[in-house]
Recover the amino acids of this structure.
């Protein structure tokens, strides 16, 4: 969830002279704990083979976030990252 929020809010790699400016996480903005919402995770029991439990929440996070912003403000945001708004 934190990774998905970071991607939606800050996810951008800029290039200068053909090279990425963000070469590692020290130059890539990450969501800080004091910026993060309270998260309540529920893992459902399953007979399926073990697999990743964190990945399924990443793809729908940006659409959910912009829809929540639309519901609260009436403004549609259609470009990521959202920090530009």
């Amino acid at each position: 969830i934190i990774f998905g929020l970071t991607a939606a809010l800050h996810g951008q790699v800029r290039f200068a002279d053909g090279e990425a400016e963000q070469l590692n996480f020290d130059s890539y903005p990450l969501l800080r704990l004091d910026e993060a919402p309270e998260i309540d995770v529920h893992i459902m029991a399953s007979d399926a083979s073990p697999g990743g439990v964190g990945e399924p929440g990443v793809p729908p996070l940006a659409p959910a976030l912009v829809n929540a912003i639309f519901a609260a403000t009436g403004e549609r945001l259609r470009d990521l990252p959202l920090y530009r708004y």
About this structure: The mean pLDDT is 89.
